[in-house]
Automatic annotation (TrEMBL):
Keywords: Endoplasmic reticulum, Glycosyltransferase, Membrane, Transferase, Transmembrane, Transmembrane helix. It is a multi-pass membrane protein. This is dolichyl-P-Man:Man5GlcNAc2-PP-dolichol alpha-1,3-mannosyltransferase. GO terms for cellular component: endoplasmic reticulum membrane. It comes from Thalictrum thalictroides. It catalyses: an alpha-D-Man-(1->2)-alpha-D-Man-(1->2)-alpha-D-Man-(1->3)-[alpha-D-Man-(1->6)]-beta-D-Man-(1->4)-beta-D-GlcNAc-(1->4)-alpha-D-GlcNAc-diphospho-di-trans,poly-cis-dolichol + a di-trans,poly-cis-dolichyl beta-D-mannosyl phosphate = an alpha-D-Man-(1->2)-alpha-D-Man-(1->2)-alpha-D-Man-(1->3)-[alpha-D-Man-(1->3)-alpha-D-Man-(1->6)]-beta-D-Man-(1->4)-beta-D-GlcNAc-(1->4)-alpha-D-GlcNAc-diphospho-di-trans,poly-cis-dolichol + a di-trans,poly-cis-dolichyl phosphate + H(+). The chain crosses the membrane at residues 116-133. It comes from the Eukaryota. The lineage of its organism: Eukaryota, Viridiplantae, Streptophyta, Embryophyta, Tracheophyta. The keyword Lipoprotein does not apply. It is an enzyme of class 2 (transferase). Signal peptide: none annotated.
Length: 151
């Protein structure tokens, strides 16, 4: 009985292994044929600034929507705050006030209702500023634009 179970298990293992190899080869062929980098491809590359902004805004939205905040969370988004504030259409003085307000709220220990409420309001103001800010063209131009060059 033990020998027959081993035989079936190994046969099933071999069949599963071959099936996974064939499936992997089909997937690889499908991916390479779908994303070929020829001249007729519609593949466009995103700018580095757009990628970083998207990641920082996503992280910030997570901070704003968190049920509770801990002091180590501040280290997650502290370095992205200047970028996020400069993406808003606010005047520079308001950006600086918001930055100092966030810092002041986080430096109150232990936190209380007032510091937490103020931090939440400041976060909402920054989030609204990001929402109303004009969007930028996210793609890298493949053709260099030089308006002075004429043929």
């Amino acid at each position: 009985m033990l020998i027959s179970n081993d035989v079936y298990r190994h046969e099933g293992g071999l069949i599963r292994f071959l099936h996974s190899r064939v499936a992997a080869m089909k997937l690889k062929n499908a991916i390479t044929s779908s994303f070929s980098l020829n001249q007729n491809s519609n593949l466009r590359f995103l700018t580095q600034e757009h990628i970083v902004t998207t990641l920082c805004v996503g992280n910030f939205i997570g901070i704003v929507c968190a049920r509770s905040l801990h002091y180590q969370f501040y280290s997650w988004y502290f370095y992205s705050l200047p970028l996020l504030l400069w993406k808003t259409p606010f005047p520079t003085l308001l950006r600086l006030i918001l930055f100092v307000g966030v810092e002041a709220c986080w430096n109150i220990f232990p936190s209380n209702v007032y510091s937490s409420s103020l931090l939440f309001c400041i976060h909402l103001v920054i989030l609204c500023g990001l929402w109303i800010s004009p969007s930028e063209y996210p793609y890298v131009d493949s053709k260099p634009s030089n308006p002075n060059k004429r043929k």
